[in-house]
Every structure is written in structure tokens, then in C-alpha cells.
Design goal:
Largest sheet: 8 strands, mixed
Number of strands: 42
Radius of gyration: 40 Å
Structural class: alpha+beta
CATH architecture of the largest domain: 2-Layer Sandwich
CATH topology of the largest domain: BirA Bifunctional Protein, domain 2
Distance between the termini: 86 Å
Mean pLDDT: 90
Low-confidence stretches: none
CATH superfamily of the largest domain: Bira Bifunctional Protein, Domain 2
Helix content: 25-40%
Amino acid sequence: MKAPVSWITEHVDLPAGTTTEQLAARLTALGLKLEAVESPGDQITGPLVVGKVLSREPEPQKNGKTINWCAVDVGAANGTGEPQGIVCGAHNFDVGDLVVVVLPGAVLPGDFAISARKTYGHVSAGMICSAAELGLSGDHDGIIVLPPDAGAPGDDAFDVLGLHDDVIEFEINPDRAYALSVRGVAREAALAYAAEGATFRDPADRDVPAPTDDGHPVELHDTDGCPLFVARLVEGFDPAAPTPDWMVRRLTQVGQRSISLAVDVTNYVMFELGRPIHAYDADTLTGPVGVRRARAGERLTTLDGTERTLSEQDLVVVDESGPVGLGGVMGGEATEISAATTRVLVESAHWDPTSMFRTGKRHRISSEAGKRNERGVDPAITEAAADRVVELLTTYGGGSAGGVTVAGSVPDRAPITAAADLAARISGMDVDHATTVAHLEAVGCTVDDRGDGTLVVTPPSWRPDVTDPHDLVEEVARVVGYETVPSVLPTPDAGRGLTRDQQLRRRVGRTLAGAGCVEVVSFPFVGDATFDQLGLPADDERRRTVRLANPISSEEPGYATTLLPGLVKAAARNLGRGAPGVALFETGTVAFPADAGPAPIYGVDRRPTPEELTALLTAVPRQPLHLGAVLAGEQERPGWWGPARAAAWSDAVALVHRLADELGVPLEVRSDVRAPWHPGRCAAFVLAGPAGRVVGHAGELHPRACRATGLPERSAALELDLDALLAAVPATAPAPVFSSFPLAKEDVALVVDAGTTTAEVEAALRDGAGELLESIRLFDVYTGEQVGAGSRSLAFALRFRAPDRTLTEQETGAARDAAVAVAAERCGAVQR
């Protein structure tokens, strides 16, 4: 919102000597965030004067352009009193007009220096200026033509153009809609300088005429959407009447382009009072004007020339022919003001903010009127705004004020009951009872002090955002001054540190970080294209996602059922930007549909009953915590010790084993087939025990998935159900057992069928070796002629130790032979 300082000071008397910077600082302290201060005159130096065109001679040029050779009276500003010869390419002026002239020696915005120079066969001593050349607007259509009473030739043009008038631009928060007007900003300025005696003169405080019998008939069919509709007629309006120069200047200052008197007046009043107004050509209306919801199939061509199919939720203004406007958002093309309009119907209506917001979003319409209506406008000034428009139209456009129609009434504001000491308790400021009441009244509230420490406060009509006792606290705090809020460190209650689940999750993160992985956080949104890239089958449960009501991207409308899409994207992005290799991990929730219908919505005035809470939780999607990781590219860097080593399936499997060892959870490994992993290089991890629940997978990504996602071939990934894994962590871990006796080493090489997994062989050896076995590790895999086709050799290092003695060669040999025997029985293993 841009507010010229001169316009603000029309409604509030600021202390003498108040600078623009001081005013902006005070308003910022009250909650109006300063965006910029514009001082257009600061970018112009040198003589800028009023000139009178004495002659204008059109001269066609060879390039097809026609220039005007002009003699301009600039008084004594040029030092000689003689007419100034100036070449001008614009054509929107004539002899006798007053114009703005910049003389040689001046500098315009953009460091554009003005000098006398020869052009088109003449020496042009200066320039006749347009608004764009002076930095007042982007309008290059013609030069500025001043009104006849703007001044005498040679007078300084700075004051005439308002170039010394600073403009303050604020970023207005959605809950401060009243500040989207000079009226609201001036009210805040008066509040800021109340201690210095500043008083506010409300421009909406005016006597309005009573309804008349000859007013245009209005029928309200939806009083919830439009509780108040005021219609005023102006008869005998002159559509050719020009907009007064002062109004054009003010509209330009707030960033609005002048269009025509009728349109300019409605825009001017909107910026002045904050109440959007719409004007109709009354002769194009048939029958009464009404307000209702649109009907199925109705269409409307709006002022921007777009034909729109209306929703049954849209509020529309109608006559007997159908919709003539989207209520509070944009008018219709068929009833707009034109160059032939002589009868104007002025609409000033109060609209439901929620309906306005949804209509604007639905039809993708953004307008100054919609911006105000969707935030909530002061309903109490509806009649005053219409009267102000009629006053300006009849003053500058001729004609007379006609009938007055008022349908509906101003909605009542619900009072708020609050403790008188609430502001002091919440803010921590030393605010007594009297100060609280005084500040609430200063912002426009009506306060009923019950005398028992309770205040019943009715917010002002222009503050629809004040609905709660804590909103009153904010109003008191901002008037006292946010800078006086004390900095008090709260005393925390005695606690027990991190919970067990928090400790375990941190242990998971530290373990993976210690293994060289980097944690990332990715967007948890997916679409069908993502699943197609990963090669998930059509019947895969991970394709059934929780659909988002308002997704960031229409291509990814579902909540993730797996962490791999985000991790794969992050890995591909880093590799594409030059990283030789990545090892990324992420912990986060995924969501699976509950298939229980929409969740019920309960009030907030009470706690849900156990039955209601059960129904609510039943409808909530299942959201387990998952852990995912992607390993791609170089995992070991090249150097003098040898070449680089790329990521492999074994790295992902080793990460899971390392994590399981850290958590103390025994996991069994099985071969599995699950997208997006390679069907021959995918390991399923199963909790040890009779339940045998699969808690995750790890292995090499399928080559097609790698190509589709931009990862190098043989990239590896893992994903675990972290909730299930952490639930299996024993409550108390056994203390480690240490032995001072020496380790006994035995190695065995077993030939097994190629389809037998290493995990099966390892489990058999572990069971057969007995309690003396301390560790087992696969250290070699061999395939070739020596073991025959369809077979492979697995070499394991077995390590034995006893806690109370040194093992003999016979004991370790017996344990080794027992282990090999069990492997032979279960897996058909033959020792090499």
C-alpha cells in the first residue's frame, strides 16, 4: 500500500517538523512494515518549470515520423524571458496549453542530463516532459498537460506535480486490511503520535442521505454472502468530463493509472477509505439488481474480456438478464461504464471475505478490490463510501444525485470477554488496568469495565481480525511498544532428557554418519511418473498414496510411500553437479491410506470423547518412520594406493548390518525380488525369531531405474521400516564379554550350488560351530572350472575363543568340523 504523506496529513495533524522517516518509523513500530519511501523529486535536479505553448508547427520527417517545433513561454526561468524553442514528438497538446518544461542544465531520473542540442534541423533547448520521463509513472503515451490554473509560465513545477510529496509504501499483513487505505494509515499515524496530541479526522465521518423511494431496486437472496448492499444513482453524468489533475496525481502516487472520471473516482475512494466501489452503466441494467449464488452453467464475461464459467459457490450480482458481475471481485463487461454513459449506478456492498477469496482463486482473478474484500472491509462505511463517490462524480462530472437504496444492515460484532490483567500476564510488560482500557479504546474498541477484573470489549468495525482475547493483548502490546516487551528466559520444568526413541533415532543417525553418509531432507511428494521411473508394478501397494488437497505440483499430488524418490533425485542432482560419489540417507515418515473415509471434524470447545477420538484416529493414514539411503558413484577415492571403487550392492547390505549390530537387533538376510532393486541382487532383512517380519530391503538398483533417474549403473540403495527395527531393540543390552585368552583361527572353503545364498551357509556354520564361535566372516567367493558349472566356492574365516581357557587344536578342529557338517546337511556344501 502506497500512501502519500500529503494525503495522510489531510486526516491527521502531525507535530510540526515531523519528517517522513520519523513517521515511517512510528508506523513500523505499530506493525505496518515499511517497504520503501519514494521521493520522486530527489532524482531531479535543475530547472523544472511551467511552460505555455505559444506555437506548434508539425514537421513530417523522412522516416515517417512527425515532430512538433514549438515555441514555449517559460517566463524568466531561462534568463532571457524569450520563448524557448523545443522539439517535441508528442501530439496530445495544443497552443495555449500549460506543460512541464525541463531546461538545459537539469538532470532527470536515470542520470539523464538535459542540454541544448541540434535535432531534426532545430536546436532544441530543453524538453517538454511526460510522466514517465519524470519518474512519476510508466505512461509514455504523451506529455503532461497541466490544468489552466496550474500556474504562470516560469513557475517552479515541483510543487505543481507534487514532486516534493513523499510516498510511503507499506507491506500490509493479511490481518491488517484496514491499512490498505489512507484512512487506515492516517488512523495509525494518529495513534502513533497520540502522546503529542495528534487527532484523527475520519474521512468516512459524513452525513449520508436516507433511502428514497426512487432508488434502484435491490434484492438480496444471500445475506450471508452479502449482508449489506447500497445503490446510488447519478443522473445526467457527463462521460467526457476530465478527471481533475489533483486526483490523477494522487492515483499515480499510489500506483494506479487514470482511465476515466467514473473509474478514477471509484478507485480514488477505494484508496481513500478502503471500501471497493463498482459503477454500472444504469441504462444497461434491466430490472432490479440482486445478489445470489451462481447457478450451474451460467457464464459471465468480466471486465478483462474473459468469459468465465461460474461455480455454484460464486456470489454474483444479477439483473433480469442474469449475472452482471462477480460480487466483490470484478464487474461484467456488458454493464461497464463507457464513453456514452450518462446514468451511473454506484454499488457499495459488504461481501463475505471467505467467499471473495475462494472466488478470486477459483477464477484466478487478482484485483485491488478483491484484495481488500477477501481480507475484510469496514462494513460501517458502506453508505459513506457510496456518498463520497456520488459527491465526486457530481462535482466533477456534472449531473445530480438520484435515488438511494439500502438493502440489508451492518453485521453486529460479537463482544470479547477478557481478564483485565491478561495483557500484562501474556506480554510480561508492566501494564496496569487503566492503561489496558485506555489503549483498547485508542485503537477503536468499546470497553465495558465490569469492575471485577473482567473487560467486555467490542472491537471496531474496521478490525475483523480482532476476535479473541489474545488479539486484544496484541493491540495493547503494540501501542505500549514492542520494544518494551521484557526478555524473560522461562524456567523449564525438570525433565528426564531424551526419550528412549529419541536416543535410538540419534544413534541411527550417528551410525550412518560414521559410515560416511550425509543426511538430507527431501520433499515427501510423489506422482505416477516417479513410480514409473523406479519400475514399481501397477499393483504395488506403494502406488496407493494419500492424495493432497492442495499439492505444490499437480505432477506430484501424493504423499510419499517410500523415501527412495527423494533420495534418488538428490543423488542425481549432486552427481550432475560434479560430485564424484554420494552416500545420502534420510529418516522420515511415509503415509499409507487408511481407507476409512474422511476424518470427522469436531469442535475445539471440548475434548473429543473416546469414541470420537477412535473414529478420528481410524481415519488418519498410517505413517511409519522409514530410513532410506542411496549410494552412487565413487565410494572410495582413487590415489597412490589404487583406483577408485564404485558403490556396490554389498555397501548397502553392509550398512544395514552395521546398523543392526549397533542397535543390537539380530537380522536374517534372504534373497528377494522387489522393485526398484535388481531381482538378483536384492536382500530382504528379516527380524530373527518365529515372526520373521521383513523390516527392509537393500541391494543394487535395477539398471532401468538407474537410467530413468540419471544414476550410474550398479548404484545401491536401502530402505528400512525404522519403527519396526527400533521396536525390536532390546530394552537392556547384555554387557560385552571379554576374554584374556588367545583367539583360535580356522578357515573353511565350501562348494555350494550357485543358487544357495551366503546367508544360508553362514547361518548353518554358525549353528554348527557352537558357543565357542566368536565371529564368522565371508572373505572370498570363487567361481570357475575348479568348482564346476552352476557352483561356487565360499570361503569363511571362523574365529573361536573360550572365556576361561586356551583352546586346544583338537577343540577348534572339532568345532570347525561340526560347523561344516551342519552346512553340508542343510545346504549340500562340500569342503574344498
